[in-house]
Design brief:
Largest interface: A-B, 29 and 38 residues
Number of strands of chain B: 0
Distance between the termini of chain B: 37 Å
Number of strands of chain A: 23
Structural class of chain A: alpha/beta
Strand order of the largest sheet of chain A: 1-3-2-4-5
Helix content of chain A: 25-40%
Number of helices of chain A: 16
Oligomer: heterodimer
Radius of gyration of chain A: 27 Å
Distance between the termini of chain A: 89 Å
């Protein structure tokens, strides 16, 4: 085995290097790492240590990797493969034997001239890996091209594993009524029992849509978490800084597309998962163009989700930068896979100033605002069914002040604020995802008390939280506890009909505990 | 618990299904033994079994549960009689409780029905599962049917049936065992072993009991999906022939 270890100068012996980068030297290749000195220095210049090892023909002889993986104290590994036919299952087996979580193992095949950026991205992604739980893996018996005979069962087919999401119960707000992942899951694998969400592992397709829609970043999908994707995009763009504005292609993990070497690839479970914030956020963080290279399922024209979001991105870019700007977001198909995409030459921001925030609550509004700022736009409104932000309009006359909407809002866009004996319903458009939960739960929905529009309103986002409605809060004359808003008591009086005038004054005086008729 | 695995049988790639069933059966038995109150006999035999299981590391390493499995095997291999007093003390403190700390119960009912509102339905369901295969928990163990060790031993028994099926080429026996294993693991150990493992890990990290409960959690969760995939593959092949 050819192996060369380059120690980081000045690295204390006791401190384990957190990321091991293994370079496949290829069959019969030189034992030299072949990395240009400036790339080595960039890697070693990262804030944490990186251990660099070259293994001769690691792609075809995974046992070569055994000693390297066992010899490292790093818990995260990046393998720079020379071939796309590397034996993934065997690599994972060797990683397990070495005590390394296979889900934290990144395999990259950088094109010439892109080694530095791709490595930096992979190292950042590996570092952001937070570990996995037993529930995150689902066993698959690899399909064999040979006809399976009854006798052949005595030899086990190769075992592989699919990643299944789990939920961080400390972050998940299902108990507040959030159903974002349940509604978005394309395979119907996620269900809610009221307080908790659960995954039907047999239905889960590991597409990652739940990661993208969760406002609280509570979905754990090891290897493709929001943190990992954001870290890779940020590091890629940072390392690709220079004269050439970078092209970033998000690719489906299962896609068999050959993409031109110009593109910096970021693997996601399926491009259908990508929210608007991830696409536009990558542009705002410094990419010239964002391409989406998907599997067959994601490219299908009836896949309304991703096509709708692409349509929104293009419409927004057209508003901000004119018709040509729409080309900054493109769907890459087999036909265009080898085309060199014309560069727009845009590199408005330096990623070091702009950490990519691609997922979770507020990411879309932050991204749109930043992008508009880069184009010099301060006010802009667009209505689009795939708008990642929404606007809530309240009819004060129809609103009874029950505040059910605030209680059901999964992102906290709607919330109540108490000031002495007044309660106000406030709204922050930067947090609204237009999910419509407030309108669905409003008891006055028939009278149109609350309306939600899928709208991006830059000026409203800039204004921040505003008050939609204020009501006087009635407190219990006996114990002082809140009873209800004056509007709600008024509405109850109306619902009580002819008994209303007599009962209404009493309803507002005491809480349910102290009330005695 | 000390039934043997032939090192020769485990060395080659042939008959992986038999060897894997053997490995799983012995692992569940060892886990069950580790979660019973320790005594001289168990402390002497467990390292021997663990060392024998280690010879099949190459097979276990193909499985996602290898990390926790290997940790459990390593801890068990290192046990000696000198560890017995400390293990007894830890077992009592962890699982029986002290006057100042509540225990981390080893019984499923404590997790699924902590307020005893289901009036023994959990226990009845578990005993029903045992009875459906024609067996019952032995009173000589002194443990309830919902004890972790009893549940894991039951799974080991079921895997034994599967193993016999593989050896005799009895597909229907294999399928029946796989189906019962999966159903039982899904309905019982997988529901509460995660909470047990987390409880033990927070109170006594690094010891035998943390290693055993973490391994039991990882293996049980793994096996539910694995058994589904295996059952599907066997059924498909059976249709082919």
């Amino acid at each position: 085995m050819a192996q060369q270890t380059i120690a980081k100068p000045g690295l204390p012996e006791a401190k384990p290097p957190p990321v091991l980068v293994v370079l496949c030297g290829g069959p019969g290749q030189s034992q030299n790492t072949g990395l240009p000195p400036e790339i080595e220095s960039r890697l070693f210049g990262l804030d944490e240590a990186v251990e660099l090892v070259e293994v001769e023909d690691a792609c075809h002889r995974p046992k070569q990797m055994r000693e390297v993986l066992r010899g490292t104290r790093a818990e995260r590994v990046v393998i720079v493969a020379c071939s796309k036919d590397y034996p993934e299952i065997e690599l994972h087996t060797e990683a397990r034997k070495a005590g390394i979580d296979p889900l934290g193992l990144q395999v990259v095949r950088p094109a010439a001239g892109r080694v530095e950026a791709v490595l930096a991205g992979a190292v950042a992604r590996a570092r952001a890996f937070a570990g996995s739980k037993p529930e995150n893996l689902k066993t698959k018996l690899a399909a064999s091209s040979q006809k399976v005979s009854r006798r052949s069962f005595f030899t086990l087919p190769p075992l592989s594993y699919a990643v299944v999401p789990t939920f961080d119960v400390r972050r998940c707000v299902a108990y507040e009524g959030c159903r974002a992942c349940v509604a978005a899951c394309p395979s119907g694998a996620i269900a809610s029992d009221g307080d908790l969400v659960t995954v039907d592992r047999s239905l889960c397709q590991s597409c990652g849509t739940c990661v993208a829609v969760c406002p609280e970043r509570a979905v754990e999908l090891p290897g493709s978490s929001a943190d990992e994707i954001e870290a890779e995009v940020t590091a890629l763009l940072d390392a690709a800084s220079g004269t050439t504005p970078p092209l970033v292609a998000f690719t489906c993990a299962d896609a068999e597309l050959s993409i031109a070497a110009d593109w910096l690839k970021v693997a996601v479970p399926c491009i259908s998962m990508l929210p608007v914030a991830a696409i536009l956020g990558t542009l705002a963080a410094g990419a010239d163009t964002v391409g989406l290279a998907g599997c067959d399922r994601s490219r299908r024209s009836d896949n309304e989700g991703i096509h709708g979001r692409l349509g929104y991105c293009r419409e927004l870019l057209t508003i901000l930068g004119g018709p040509g700007a729409a080309a900054r977001v493109t769907l890459l198909g087999p036909a265009s896979s080898h085309e060199v995409v014309p560069r727009n030459g845009r590199r408005e921001s330096s990623p070091s100033e702009a950490q990519a925030h691609l997922f979770g609550k507020g990411a879309a509004a932050e991204t749109v605002t930043r992008l508009a700022g880069l184009y010099g736009a301060s006010a802009m409104t667009t209505d689009h069914e795939s708008s990642p932000t929404g606007m809530v309009a309240l009819d004060r006359e129809a609103c009874s002040g029950c505040w059910t909407c605030a209680g059901s809002c999964p992102t906290g866009a709607l919330k109540t604020e108490v000031d002495d004996d007044e309660v106000s319903l406030t709204f922050d458009p930067s947090l609204c995802t237009a999910c419509g939960e407030c309108a669905r739960t409003c008891p006055e929905a028939e009278t149109g008390a609350i309306r939600v529009t899928s709208r991006t309103d830059l000026a409203a986002i800039a204004r921040g939280r505003t008050t939609l409605h204020t009501e006087v809060e009635r407190n219990c004359e006996s114990c002082g506890a809140p009873v209800a808003s004056a509007g709600m008591i008024r509405r109850l009086g109306e619902l009580l009909g002819e008994d209303g005038p007599a009962l209404t004054p009493r309803l507002g005086r005491f809480c349910a505990t102290c009330r005695v008729f | 618990m000390t039934s043997s695995i032939s090192p020769d049988a485990l060395a080659g790639p042939v008959d992986d299904t038999v060897n894997l069933a053997h490995l799983r059966r012995e692992t569940y038995r060892l886990l069950a033994a580790a979660l019973l109150y320790p005594d001289e006999s168990s402390i002497e035999s467990m390292p021997v079994v663990a060392a024998r299981l280690r010879r099949s590391s190459h097979l276990a390493a193909k499985m996602a549960f290898f990390g926790p499995w290997e940790q459990f095997i390593a801890v068990t291999e290192s046990l000696g009689l000198a560890d017995l007093p400390a293990l007894e003390q830890t077992y009592l403190a962890l699982f029986v409780g002290t006057t100042v700390r509540r225990p981390v119960p080893l019984h499923e009912t404590s997790y699924l029905d902590p307020a005893a509102e289901l009036s023994g339905h959990v226990l009845a369901d578990i005993e029903g599962a045992y009875a459906a295969t024609g067996i019952a928990a032995s009173p000589s163990t002194g443990e309830m049917s919902d004890h972790a060790a009893v549940e894991l031993e039951f799974v080991s028994y079921l895997i034994g049936e599967e193993e016999s099926g593989w050896e005799a080429n009895e597909v229907s026996q294999v399928l029946r065992s796989v189906r019962i294993q999966r159903r039982f693991l899904h309905r019982h150990p997988c529901v509460w072993l995660p909470a047990l493992a987390r409880g033990v890990a927070s109170r006594n990290p690094g010891g035998l009991y943390a290693a055993a409960t973490s391994a039991a959690w990882a293996i049980a969760v793994h096996d539910v999906d694995f058994l589904s995939a295996l059952g599907d593959a066997v059924r498909a092949a059976n249709r082919e022939t």
